[in-house]
């Protein structure tokens, strides 16, 4: 088996490294010192640079002006973005564009994908549901009335909603089916209330009051929302991995220079063992991430094991949630009081790590989902 990345995937990584090389993690006020949002919107100059480097169209086909790459390539770029805490809706934008490309009507793809690839149109998705724990599609009801769907309900913690042009909203039809509606942010009956993430970003509570959506803007293909949710979860794992790797590198540099009793603290066994444990966490996060991304791209049902791809996604999210939490906690411990200094970027990574740990459900939620899958697909 060949576990190396393709030339195209490696080229995407190099392009991403070039774009993110000059991004400073402390480019906005500290979330620890800011009562509201650290900024009113995402990093527009960085967004323009990503567009100019063709990274926003990474997962779009050549027909839509993209590079035609896959989930693995997207995760490789997200990994680099998280190393510098890049404040852009790269995951939500690209994952939504993938769903529209795969399942959207010709009218919808023509309206969204050209602008999405150029970065002139920003997409996001409401994936947390009403509480952040229940299935997101249950938060909104969708009723079809001829050529129009009517949506009612509430989604919480919609990332970058105030700065996005279109929002993808999962909903349920009442007969067990999930649909995905694409709505302009200015749609009548759609309101946004300010919310703030753990990382200090401006999110939104989205309320839909008898919102009418043309049927051409609703994706009702079986499995479309579930696929989008899995891509979002896997991308979140990539963000957690990149963040964790940056934090461990930061910790290694600090403990190698910080001396106690005349020796660098990195040479003390207790410090070295804790750092080694976190390195093992990161390697487990990495292997489960690529397994999940490969299963999503392969789309071959039971290939790779008796469980569907959602099982691999659940395992990856369990490791990402638990692993990134342990990495930042150990980093804070090994930095001592310096780790809490708001002039030092570690506390920012800690805030982002907590956001990623809980995003799309904590480890316990994915353990429950994995248990249900194991019950439905006996390994024997």
Largest sheet: 4 strands, mixed
Ends distance: 25 Å
Percentage of β-strand residues: 15-25%
Fraction of residues in H or I helices:
40-55%
Rg (C-alpha, Å): 21 Å
Number of helical segments with 4 or more residues: 10
Low-confidence stretches: none
What would the principal axes of the Cα set say about the shape?
Answer: globular
Biggest sheet, spatial arrangement of strands: 1-4-5-8
How would you state the average pLDDT, rounded? 94
Number of strands: 10
Backbone structural class: alpha+beta
N-to-C SSE series?
HHHHHEEEEEEEEHEEHHHH
Structure in words:
- The protein has helices spanning about 5-20, 45-50, 70-85, 90-105, 105-120, 225-255, 270-300, 310-335, 345-360, 365-375; strands at about 125, 140-145, 150-160, 165-170, 180-185, 190-195, 200-215, 220, 260, 265.
- It has 10 helices and 10 strands.
- The model has no long low-confidence stretch (mean pLDDT about 95).
- It has a 4-stranded mixed β-sheet with strand order 1-4-5-8, covered by helices on one side.
- A hairpin with a 2-residue loop joins strand 9 (about 260) and strand 10.
- With about 375 residues, it is an alpha+beta fold.
